[in-house]
Amino acid sequence: MIITNRGIIFSMDALVAFVIVMFMLLVFTINLGNETNNLTQNVGHFFLEEKVMMVADSLIKNYNEENSLLGACVIDLDKKRVKSNEINSLNFSNLKQLNQDEFFIKSISYKTQTRSKKYLIEDRGGECLVVKRLALINGEKGLIFVEGCI
Amino acid sequence: MLILLTSLGLLLNVFVEQEKNFEQMKNSLVAKGDVLMCMSVIDGLYANSADAYTGEIDCFVKDGRVEFYLDDITKSMSVIPKITKEHFLEVKTSDHYK
């Protein structure tokens, strides 16, 4: 029996065991706290990545007259259709910011064998991420970079 | 004392379980992000926007679906392009884009 005439707290064995268990609990709690922080960061990062990817996808798959950020593709007037994955860099002249809470697109840029250009949409800091997409830019195979921030 | 120790044991178990759940959620997010990345590369090749992709992609193609594994997490997405080979991804460019 651990209980002595001085009570549980004054039993040295029980006290040592209790301190060890409490120390383990402390270590677990600290570890769990760190894990939670990491997960929160990962979730934030994932949602940012997903949003930027969706904007990049929309950019290279659609044509939007009002905002090229949502679509900058070439239109085939004969076939009456949007030529997805085919971008005309002239369409980038009409890039407008999206109204999406804290999320914003900082810049759009492209790079081909012969040309590269960057269009700054909003000059603001934050946690940013760049997503690359393969596309035909002015008939040349190249890369589109979409930089989104939160 | 027995009740106290049992409670502490249960609490520790809850912590361990929670940590496992966190790890799984983290892996799930990484897998989902990577499968999206794979899809975008495949789409680019399918749409004749690149001749080849020389970067390393860690995803698998099975029965018309792109899959990504991380520990015990599997994320997958359906694909339209005809994709062959497991270790060297070969995407057939659509005639529509040629």
Written overview of the protein:
- The complex is a heterodimer of chains A (about 150) and B (about 100).
- Helix content of chain A is about 35%, strand content about 30%.
- Chain A has a domain at about 50-150.
- Chain A is α+β, with helices and mostly antiparallel strands and about 150 residues long.
- Chain A is built from 1 helix and 6 strands.
- Chain A has a 6-stranded mixed beta sheet with strand order 1-2-5-6-3-4.
- The longest helix of chain A is centred in the first third of the chain and has 50 residues, at about 10-60.
- Chain A is rod-shaped.
- Chain B is α+β, with helices and mostly antiparallel strands and about 100 residues long.
- Chain B has one domain.
- In chain B, about 45% of the residues lie in helices and about 20% in strands.
- Chain B has 1 helix and 5 strands, in the order αβββββ.
- Chain B has one helix at about 1-45, and strands at about 60, 65-70, 75-80, 85, 90.
- In chain B, the strands form 2 sheets. Chain B has a 3-stranded antiparallel beta sheet, with helices on one face. A two-stranded antiparallel ribbon of chain B has the order 4-5.
- In chain B, β2 (about 65-70) and β3 (about 75-80) form a beta hairpin.
- The longest helix of chain B has about 45 residues, at about 1-45.
- The mean pLDDT of chain B is about 75.
Distinctive features:
heterodimer; A: 150 residues; alpha+beta; six-stranded mixed β-sheet; 1 helix; 6 strands; B: 98 residues; three-stranded antiparallel β-sheet; two-stranded antiparallel ribbon; 46% helix
Outline the fold blueprint.
The complex is a heterodimer of chains A (150) and B (98).
Chain A: H1 12-61, E1 73-76, E2 81-87, E3 104-112, E4 116-120, E5 128-137, E6 140-149
Parallel strand pairs in A: 2-5
Antiparallel strand pairs in A: 1-2, 3-4, 3-6, 5-6
Chain B: H1 2-46, E1 60-62, E2 65-70, E3 73-78, E4 83-84, E5 90-91
Antiparallel strand pairs in B: 1-2, 2-3, 4-5
